Amino acid sequence: MDDLDITEVGITISFYVVALLFSAVGREILSGLMALRYGDETPRVSNRITLNPLKHVDILGTFIIPFTLIILGANFIFGYAKPMPINYENIKEKTGYKGCLYVALSGTFFNFLVALCCVVVLRFGIDLGLMQNGGLIMQFFFILLQVNVMLAVFNLLPIPPLNGALILAYIGLYFNISFFARLYNNVEKYGMILLIIILLFPPTNEAILWIMKNTLLFFLKL
Fold first, then answer.
1. Whether 67 contacts 17, CB under 8 Å
2. E strands along 15-161, which residues?
3. Is 47's pLDDT higher than 80?
4. Looking at residue 4, what is its pLDDT?
5. Alpha carbon distance 120, 24 (integer Å)
6. What is the number of alpha carbons within 13 Å of residue 153 lying toward its C-beta?
7. Could you tell me the end-to-end alpha-carbon distance of the chain, in angstroms, rounded to an integer?
8. pTM for the full predicted model
9. Do 145 and 215 meet the contact criterion of CB atoms below 8 Å apart?
10. Of 74-78, 136-140, 152-156, minimum mean pLDDT range
């Protein structure tokens, strides 16, 4: 590998790290702001409503896991920031299950919104000649788009502690169906084990990758 290849790999890894840091931290901050909006002061009391990334990063989830996946050439990249401390009981008391559902959805909304913004920037940048085809700016926004789609889809998996399971539980409770909430409570302690099995099991791994790819294609066709 010559010096140029090493430089390109270093730039690509740096772009992924920055994109993941922004996207993972951003979804947690929005979740905290939404929790405040719907009646829970826990994020503010915990001093997590801040743009300081050091308050949000998780060494394993924000750096080690994604960096390892990039180096190994994994099919998709994922990571996470420190979960925002949220007391859903406070939200339920003040705004009901609808408020809980909005808070649970906020992280995914953030990722899809950033993905949409990336598409707009790429589209106008290319059409107006503001971006060089294959240039660094274009590469960064494509990586930012890719990372946010991956985070959104991955976190929608209905497996605790991912948001997908929480969203499903509160949708059920909103319609007076407690099955998914009970399932969440029963499965939560085994969630990480189930998640690892699903990621390592080829059929489920390929299914997740298929959803991510097609979601990315959907955004690129907008």
1. yes
2. none
3. yes
4. 55
5. 21
6. 23
7. 37
8. 0.92
9. no
10. 74-78
Supply the pLDDT for residue 2: 57
Residue given tokens 């959805």 in the structure block: 105
**How far apart, in whole angstroms, are the C-alpha atoms of residue 40 and residue 30?**
13
- Taking the C-alpha atoms of residue 27 and residue 105, their distance in angstroms, rounded to an integer, is 10
Q: Burial letters for 69-105: b for 16+ Cβ neighbours within 10 Å, e otherwise?
A: bbeeeeebbbbbbbebbbebebbbeebebebbbbbbb
Q: What angle do CA 204, 67, 115 make, to 5 degrees?
A: 65
Q: Which residues contact residue 149 at a Cβ distance below 8 angstroms, ignoring those fewer than 6 apart?
A: 111, 112, 115, 212, 215, 216, 219
Q: Can you tell me whether residue 168 is helix, strand or coil?
A: helix
CA atoms within 13 A on the CB side of 83: 10
Residue/partner pairs of 32-35 with CB below 8 Å, 24 or more apart = 32/84, 32/86, 33/106, 34/102, 34/103, 34/106, 35/84, 35/86, 35/87, 35/91, 35/103
| Closest residue by Cα to residue 145 from 122, 126, 168, 164 | 122
* Confidence grade of residue 79 (pLDDT, cut at 50, 70, 90): confident
| Number of neighbouring beta carbons within 10 Å of residue 215 | 17
**43 upstream amide cis, omega within 30 of 0:** no
Query: Number of C-alpha atoms within 13 angstroms, CB side, residue 9?
Result: 11
The C-alpha angle with vertex 63 and arms to 62 and 64, in degrees rounded to 5, equals 120
